[in-house]
Amino acid sequence: MFKKKLVALSAIMIAGLMTFQANVSADAVEEKPYLSLGADLSASQKSKVLELLGVKENELDQYKVVKVTNKDEHKYLDDYLDSSVIGTHALSSVLIEKRDKGEGIDVTTKNITYCTAGMYENALTTAGVTDANVTVAGPFNITGTAALVGAMNAYEDMTGENISSESKDAATNELVVTSKLADQLNDSEKAEQFLALIKEKVLSDDAKTKEDINTIIDECSKDLDVNITDDQREQIAELMQKINKLDLNVNDLKEQASKIYDKLSEMDIDAQGIFAKIKTVLSSIFAALSGLLQ
């Protein structure tokens, strides 16, 4: 009887081991790095980009290679940038690798002059991208606004997770708004922090109306000493209305773009929205009253 049980147990263990090995193999396929290359790169430009990304041309079979066309770039950017800015050639390239759960998004840029790593991180969290190493490169100095399209498409292919058109639109909109604000402020880091702070407060408060969102924008302007025009205020409010419809989780947001939110914490900036603060105060009052009545 004991021998029969031992044989049965051994069979179960072997089956479990085989399943584990199969899962490991499946994960290895899924975690294959994705390389999104601009479709209009010349041979020499491609070599330069691969060098910057740390990819050897004779090892491309170790990557899942996809291409982003200028048509793809225009699809998402035409509503926010002049066609002359987007250009007629797709040159931005992106290497994306999955990280362990909870490690967040980490972005590195090379030959990107307009968009910063923080801007990409902010926008990618809005798109719903999680736990990824992202390297963005150009063959020479380029703005990099179109690279977000390649990053989102590559992430979808790599994970099998669909990024909705609404999420892609909001993320692209955010990148452009932040880039323009950084240009106006002459301070990329402050622009990143400003948009990140507004986004967190809007989501914390579930602020849907422009009136509530404008209240938060004004509060954040004061907190970070940022002066914006009425037109910029309107653009940010419209962006935040889009973002609040995406069902994003505030804690996930802070985890994925931890560099930005950790910096805000170091600056002792309270990221809790005004309505969330009121709710917290009221909860404390009700708790105190309940204690007195017991």
Detail the topology: elements first, then pairings.
Layout lengths: L1 H29 L3 E5 L4 H11 L10 E5 L1 H8 L5 H4 L6 E6 L6 E8 L4 H11 L4 E11 L4 H13 L5 H21 L2 H18 L4 H15 L5 H14 L6 H7 L1 H9 L7 H20 L1
Parallel strand pairs: 1-2, 4-5
Antiparallel strand pairs: 1-3, 3-5
Helix pairs in contact: 5-7, 7-8, 7-10, 8-9, 8-12, 9-10, 11-12
Keywords: Coiled coil, Signal
Pfam family, one: DUF1002
Protein name: DUF1002 domain-containing protein
What does this structure look like?
The structure is a single chain. This protein has 294 residues and is of the alpha/beta class. The protein folds into two domains: 33-163, no CATH class; 168-284, no CATH class. The chain contains 13 helices and five strands. Strands 2-1-3-5-4 form a five-stranded mixed sheet. Strand 4 (105-112), helix 5 (117-127) and strand 5 (132-142) form a beta-alpha-beta unit. Helix 8 packs across helix 12. It is globular and about 55 Å long. The model is unreliable at 2-29 and 273-282 (pLDDT under 50).
The major pleated sheet works out as:
5 strands, mixed
Radius of gyration: 23 Å
Name the beta content range. 5-15%
SSE run: HEHEHHEEHEHHHHHHHH
Percent helix, as a range, is 55-70%
Overall structural domain count: 2
* SSE class: alpha/beta
Low-confidence stretches: 2-29, 273-282
Q: Biggest sheet: strands side by side, in what order?
A: 2-1-3-5-4
Number of helices: 13
Give a count of the beta strands, DSSP E runs of length 2 or more: 5
